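I had to read the description of the data format several times before I understood it. Each protein is reduced to its one-letter sequence and a matching series of backbone shape codes. The format is easy to grasp once an entry is in front of the reader. For illustration, here is how one protein appears when written out as sequence plus structure tokens:
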Amino acid sequence: MSTTTPLSRNVTRLGHLDLPGSGQVYVHDNYAYLGHLPNKQGLGTSIIDISDPRKPKVVSQINLEDPTSHSHKARVIGDLMITNSERNMTKIGRKADELPGLRTRLTAELGREPNHAELADRLGVSAADIPAVEEAQRNPYNMGGFKLWDVSDKSKPKLISFQKTHGIGVHRFDMDANYAYISTEAPGYIGNILAIYDIRNPAKPEEVSKWWMPGQKEGEHKSWPGRQYRLHHALRSGDRLFAGCWHGGVRIIDVSDIKKPTTIGEYNYHPPFPEPSHTFMDVPFEVAGRRIALAIDEEDHAHDGAEMARRRGRPHGCLWVFDITDPKKMFPLSIFEVSELDTPFARATPGRFGAHQFHERMDDTLVYCAWFAGGLRIVDIADPTAPQEVGHYIPEPLHGQAGPQTNDIDVDKRGIIYVVDRGPGFNILEFNRK
């Protein structure tokens, strides 16, 4: 444990567990479900009893059988849990996808087969990495998808089915009692799109529709490089989905006909803002007489000296407040940013500083934001044109980490706050309202 203490304003820590880093925490009834980032233990999901938030207890944990995958997201409706399966990041990344086309082009240019050094120079890897790239081309990753679990007995989760998708797999998703709204790659598309599955029979999920941004389907004209426009994930609210679309900004999708998702509103603030749109969420009540939605960016680059110098003067990832009274004419009302002066870990390396995520279920005007090295920031949007911070909690870094990397947040019906970090740590907090 670190000997430093957390920094807080109007927030008190109730409980803590020293668990491996997590990508998501989701609370349902008296349990918290943690999806873990890649870790040495091969841990995928932890189920935590939080009936007494001061004494959280691990009820069960799911270990992964495939060492090349991680399962860093989890959601639960009733006794059904969904977890994702996504390929671990590797040094060679997607170089295997580029290799066939590159080999063809170089062969034409050189009039002979290129050697490893020539391939490596164009791919941006070392010549020693080329055999691994070739192996990845011969044996592509095929474990991407999502798993459905029976968690009626929290101490013994039972796998019901494993729905495989495509590419490097499933990143984030939403679900309800009838459907799963999955962000995944798919054959014939560039970057993650939305695939909607009927999960009423969890033993046999069935895809009912797809949604994508024009230009993502192969053969369609696109105006952006690579996978810059892609779905991060979409959240359902009534008959609409609210989608964060990375450098494509945000979209509102009509799903009143679940078989024909239709875009009814969009807004893109890239450029000039450099950080990608992570999450877009409907506020399910009017605020100051307006229909409101919130977006939050993901600070997408780890800090080191060179990166910090390159980014000097550029805005960090932030929280956006949108007026969506008319989805076809949505527009931003305000943004909320955290100063680098507001945390001693803003330039801790390696790590990220800016925004990442907020809790995805609101019942008042408080927004609980995960701000990487800025920890938890609690923002009141009662005046949507002037968001105000009303509390924060910056956890102490653990086990020699340079600083915290607060990654995800959920809030239960009691108002208790659950916070996970990309590094070790699971904190249970309480906001001291005045």
About this structure: Helices lie at 95-110, 116-123, 130-138, 305-311. The radius of gyration is 22 Å. The chain has one domain: 7-86+148-431.
